[in-house]
Known about the structure:
By secondary structure, this protein is of the alpha+beta class. It has 2 helices and 4 strands; from the N terminus they run αββββα. It starts with a helix and ends with a helix.
Amino acid sequence: MYSFRSMRISASGLSAERLRMDTIASNISNATTTRGENGRPYVRKVAVFQEHLDKSLDKTNKPGDNLMGVKAVGVKEDQSPLRRVYDPSHPDADNEGYVMMPNVNILNEMADMIAATRSYEANVDTLNSMKSMFSKALEIGR
């Protein structure tokens, strides 16, 4: 049923944006971690998504009928270089007094968090609209 498909698409968006917000929160909380479990500075993580399509070979499908939403492919490390900060008093400073800091920029993370929050809210609004439409349709049937 097409109406439930739109709810499934919004639900997949909610799930994806939650992963994105969790990843951003991890980046923010580790923005100053210079030595992790592997002995290296924290590396910024990015959630990766792709469209989720129904791959069935039904020839009666119209364009857009195979859309199932979005799915999380995984979380990958950002390949941008680590920051090198001069702080000779830091315990992780090298011989020249520089410390390798994570490649996390708090301003970028906050902007990404705002975008993820707005996307999450849009999916919630869509689900609420669908719920309201179902409710009105049931009232018509009385």
